[in-house]
């Protein structure tokens, strides 16, 4: 039993590493697009499609292939468990931003309005102020998948709460398939040029002493789309399992309020 738990823990760690690598793939591809000369530009010129178009679909294709392999190896429940476990862990790390944001905001208010200090720890106050905006944005964009995993997003709860488990499962299944995933795909596609152009110029703050990392802040948009789509896949798998009568998935739906 102990060996089984150890193997399962190692498997979840490996999965988390792969998922994190997939999320990082967006940033790596954007970073490649920054360079407009040398080997990269020669490679881009030789490709039958443009680099932005290629970069847009590479993460999707890689993740699609990985999904197929994982489904074959772990089955529906195993894959859903791994996705949920990753976002549980990732979400708890992101949640620390709320505490850091609170501390920084308090320090900025005291330093600027009580003591009139132009700098905090040798850094301009404006830089600390902008860091609050960054943390606020990252908290919501990177924590959205964790919130979805725990059914914490606002739901127009007129019929869903007291609906039978089978109906809840169908609502989640159809909603993820025809609303969530297309929305994530649209955000990914529409934001691509916007984010890529920001990386190409390494866009920074309009303030001279501000944070020169707007390109990183904007990168949260495609990462949001990827993470929500991945968690949406878990929702689809859970819904299918609930319709098949899986006890754990049925209990999760029942815990979302009402149902029988």
Judging from the principal axes of the Cα atoms, what is the shape?
elongated
Percent of residues in helical segments? Answer: over 70%
Distinct helical segment count: 7
Distance between the termini: 34 Å
How many independent structural domains? 1
- Unreliable stretches covering 5 or more consecutive residues: 26-41, 46-53
Could you characterize the architecture of this molecule?
It is a single chain. The chain has helices spanning 2-34, 38-46, 51-114, 125-149, 165-200, 214-243, 247-255; strands at 119-120, 123-124. The protein has one domain. It has 7 helices and 2 strands. The protein has a two-stranded antiparallel sheet with strand order 1-2. Helix 3 (51-114) crosses helix 4 and helix 4 (125-149) runs parallel beside helix 6 (214-243). The longest helix has 64 residues, at 51-114. The model is unreliable at 26-41 and 46-53 (pLDDT under 50). It is elongated and about 65 Å long. It is 79% helix and 2% strand. By secondary structure, it is an all-alpha fold.
